[in-house]
Amino acid sequence: MKQNNGHITVQSEVGKGTTFRIYLPETDEALPTPSTFVLEAIQTGTETILVAEDNPDVRSPIAVTLKGLGYKVLEAGDGDEAIALSSTYQDQIHMFLTDIVLPTMSGLEAAARLRIDRPGLRVLFITGYPAELVDQHGSIQSDMLLLAKPFAPDKLAAMVRKALESEPRELPQRFWMGE
What we know:
This protein has about 180 residues and is α/β, with parallel strands linked by helices. It has helices at about 55-70, 80-90, 105-115, 130-135, 155-165, and strands at about 5-15, 15-25, 50, 70-75, 95-100, 120-125, 145-150.
């Protein structure tokens, strides 16, 4: 809400319920008409993707979406779990999709550690933080692939395909350890 110069109020009364009011600033910007929407073909694949996201309410829909697109998905709740899963998984892992902020280590650090044993691993970062805030901590480079939460399944599909079809990108030397 604050990122969009809005705010939220909560009013709660025992036995009566709770009301949430969301306030966003007005805009003169016109909404697009239905004819301006362009549907693109959803990108599919068969590669193996390791997903590290500490929030199961975010991780589960990502996994379901990717599985529905034909990918094999390995799920981890944090960086340590992702590294452990990778070390026991015998087949190729094509991509690491990770939240930048994870509880045990940053997604950036987990990616760097995974690359020790899997040097060609592609990485796609996701975050709920504005890119400017993440960048202030020196963790994002302009050529890194970053998808801002929340995102639609078609955006996830497109970014996953882009990551898989591109050369592995360098990771920053300095890691942002989160909050």
